[in-house]
Structure formats: structure tokens, C-alpha cells
Amino acid sequence: MSDSLSVRLGERIRETRLALMMLTRLPAGSFPMPPPPMTAARWAFPLTGLPLGLIGWAVLAGGSALGLASLAAGILALIAMALATGGLHHDGLADFIDGLGGRDRARRLEIMRDSRVGSYGALALILAVGLGAASLGALAEAPCSAAALLLAGVGSRFAMLLVLDGLPPARADGLGRMATPGRPDRSAWLPGLSVALLLCLITGVAGVLAVAAMLGTAALVARKARAALGGQTGDVLGATQLCAETAGWLVLSAAL
């Protein structure tokens, strides 16, 4: 292996580890030297959905094999994935929905910084968890259930990447600002898009419909964020991922 190839491979590994550290609670080691910039790790954001989807599927399949009711298995799978992400995306959804109750842009951003959960955010979480658990439970006995959960994990984070690239940062700081490149870099889309297309070959028409649902859901969240906030924040990205993934699960549970 040439020195240049070895260096590039080392950089890709470090960027993948940084993406795992930012978007999950999975062990990714530590950096003995300054980590790469977050913008360099954007390409790996969708790929973090692979271990998370695998965790969800393992718990779902295990619960089903033990004879648990499908809804119970779905709830356990949802809990496992939420623990693996530290509830990061759930927190983003609650903050974003709470913020929409503000009277103007400044007030909405202020509300989103508040760590307390309001009634709007709590209701959004209840709906997301309920729909997610029911959909996952329905996928327990579905064919290609492993590929389905992997597709939802990757596709929803690819949709999040599109929103990150499509909207300007609404704040001068935070995750949305740090992960936004100085100029659009569409090459960062290729890894996530390639994996999603490969998984669509396994899940068939159901997978294509799920990807369409995830992208459409992300577009709706992005449109609301642009109108209410003027751009994206880390909370908007988290809300995008969770809403898109839930939409993907819903479609897959109906179509598989």
C-alpha cells in the first residue's frame, strides 16, 4: 500500500470515527491529535445509520424469537436505538417543535436552546415514539427486515445531510454551523447514496417508496425550518433524521 493511499485511508477512518462520536454513543475511541474538521466527516453521517440499524434489528429479531408481542419487540428496538444515539435526535425534534411556538425568529431560537421540554415537544415525541414502535413491531416478521432497518437508518441520515447542505445555518454557532461547508460539496453525498441504492436492491419497491417518503419528509421539515428560523440548526437536523426515519419505517411496514 502506497504512503498516499495509507494516509487517505487513515483520514477516512478518523472521519468515520468522528461521525460516530458526534451522532451516536457507540464506542469510537479517542483522538490523540486534533480531530478532523466536522465538515470533512459529513460524508460518513449516513453511514452511522448502519450500526444503529443493525442494533435495532438485532433487538427486534431477538424479541420476536423470544415470543414477545410485536409491539413490545418494536418498543425494545426503539429503546435500543435511542440509547445508542443518546436520544440526540429525539431531543432535536422536541426542541424544534417547541421552538415553532415562538412569536418570531429570535424567540424561536431562544426556546430551542431551553433544555426544558414543552407541551408541543412532548406531544411530538409521543407521536414519534408511538408510530416508530408500531412500525418496527410490524417489521419484526417482514422479509428483508434487516435490510429495511439499515435502509431507514442510512436513508434518514442521508436526508439529514441534504438539509444540512440545502439550508444555511440559522445560528452563528452549534452543530448546524460547524458541519456546514464553506461551499457545497456534493461528493459527500456519494457514500450514503450508494449504500441506500444497494439496500433498495434488496428491499425492492418497498425500499424505493421508503426513500421517497424519507426525502419528502425531510423536505417538509426543511421548508418549515427555512420559514420559521431562516435556516438549519442541530435541532433541525435531529428532527429531520427522526421524522424521516419514522416515515421510512411506516412505509416499509406497510409495503414489505
TrEMBL record:
Keyword Amino-acid biosynthesis in annotation: no
Keywords: Cell membrane, Cobalamin biosynthesis, Magnesium, Membrane, Transferase, Transmembrane, Transmembrane helix
GO molecular function: adenosylcobinamide-GDP ribazoletransferase activity; cobalamin 5'-phosphate synthase activity
Pathway: Cofactor biosynthesis; adenosylcobalamin biosynthesis; adenosylcobalamin from cob(II)yrinate a,c-diamide: step 7/7
Pfam families: CobS
Keyword Membrane: yes
Catalytic activity entry: alpha-ribazole 5'-phosphate + adenosylcob(III)inamide-GDP = adenosylcob(III)alamin 5'-phosphate + GMP + H(+); alpha-ribazole + adenosylcob(III)inamide-GDP = adenosylcob(III)alamin + GMP + H(+)
Residue spans crossing the bilayer: 54-83, 117-140, 146-167, 188-215
Localization in the cell: Cell membrane
Enzyme Commission no: 2.7.8.26
GO biological process, one term: cobalamin biosynthetic process
Cofactors demanded by this protein: Mg(2+)
Membrane topology category: Multi-pass membrane protein
Cellular component terms per the entry's GO annotation: plasma membrane
Predominant place of localization: membrane
Record's function text: Joins adenosylcobinamide-GDP and alpha-ribazole to generate adenosylcobalamin (Ado-cobalamin). Also synthesizes adenosylcobalamin 5'-phosphate from adenosylcobinamide-GDP and alpha-ribazole 5'-phosphate.
Family assignment from sequence similarity: Belongs to the CobS family.
HAMAP family reported for this sequence: CobS
Record's protein name: Adenosylcobinamide-GDP ribazoletransferase
